[in-house]
Write a structure and sequence with these properties.
This protein is α/β, with parallel strands linked by helices and 328 residues long. The chain is 34% helix and 17% strand.
């Protein structure tokens, strides 16, 4: 009799699990990006030198021009949206290296223990290009790319400026779209993992942001996970949405600022937008463009994210123009 009750409950439980599994599959189908390796197009070329994987868009103006390393987020690869950003920056007179750091062909499938030296190698590659001014290098990163951008700036004095959109103040645990396993640090240096904050396994029925807020509250127990921005001489512009559902990018942006100020530095500026989420960075869209309807996917509203972009994008362009022409 007990077995029958258990069996009856089990059938209901099985149905619930199937429904949850279906819902999870739908959720992951919507939110896990396919790996993209966008073609460089007519004004760029594919780079595979020295272990790099990137699209390179050289400045079309004569003489040596400032250059930008452009980093995407946890989608990895070389995204179409990143390519469009690279083309805009190329049109502004910059040489742009749109760099893939994982999930591309012959690259790690998991965002775990990615060597920070890989990014320094990309800067060295840029400096050797005839059209690049080797003294004027910026790094522009979004989400995990913003985390990487800040790490690079603390380790490589060749970086003049950083734009970090939806940034992190800490090194986070690694992650994967292809595995449910837990990983150690996202990044390594000289073959050793960087100290990091752990957030455990992602539960798809919850926004990531509260989970990461809980993890962020443990920073006092693991202070070495904080990104030491005081070691950077670069000017830093942070852009965030207060309604970010992926991670608490505005609280982390303020942590970066507070850490810099506590060391007597005033090289960090924050642009925070109240009705924007993780899609705070990039050019604004027209309301009839399909992409406009997806801006709210990771927090904020479509209109709020787009207003943030309309305000932030010219400020980003102005920041890069100022910092990459500043006398050194």
């Amino acid at each position: 009799m007990g077995w029958k009750r258990k069996a009856g409950f089990g059938c209901g439980g099985l149905l619930l699990l199937l429904l949850l599994g279906f819902a999870g599959a739908v959720y992951f189908g919507l939110f896990i990006p396919a790996v993209q390796v966008a073609e460089a197009g007519a004004t760029g070329r594919r780079i595979t030198d020295q272990g790099l994987l990137a699209n390179y868009y050289p400045a079309r103006d004569s003489g040596r021009r400032p250059a930008i390393v452009l980093l995407g987020g946890s989608e990895g690869g070389i995204s179409e949206s990143g390519r469009r950003t690279a083309l805009i920056l190329q049109g502004q007179g910059y040489s742009v290296l749109q760099l893939s750091f994982y999930r591309g062909p012959h690259q790690p499938p998991n965002l775990a223990l990615i060597p920070v030296e890989y990014f320094s190698n990309s800067i060295s590659w840029l400096q050797r290009q005839a059209e690049v001014d080797p003294e004027r290098i910026a790094v522009v990163g979004v989400s995990k790319g913003a985390e990487a951008a800040l790490l690079i700036a603390t380790r490589d004095p060749r970086v003049s400026a950083v734009v970090a959109a939806a940034p992190s103040s800490v090194v986070w645990q690694g992650s994967s779209f292809d595995s449910s396993a837990e990983f150690g640090s996202s990044w390594s240096e000289r073959g050793r993992p960087l100290d990091y904050l752990r957030f455990g396994r992602w539960r798809w029925w919850r926004d990531m942001s509260p989970i990461m807020e809980e993890a962020l509250a443990t920073l006092a127990q693991n202070p070495r996970a904080a990104i030491p921005v005081e070691r950077s001489n670069a000017r830093i512009l942070l852009i965030c949405g207060e309604s970010d559902h992926l991670w608490p990018s505005c609280p982390m942006a303020r942590q970066v600022t507070e850490r810099a100020r506590s060391h007597g530095l005033s090289n960090v500026t924050v642009l925070a937008y109240p009705d924007a989420g993780h899609a705070v960075f990039g050019r604004p869209f027209r309301e009839d463009e399909p992409a406009f309807q997806h801006l709210d996917r990771l927090g904020g509203t479509n209109a709020g994210n787009n207003r943030a972009r309309a305000d932030g994008w010219p400020r980003i362009m102005g920041f890069l123009r100022t910092e990459l022409t500043r006398p050194r």
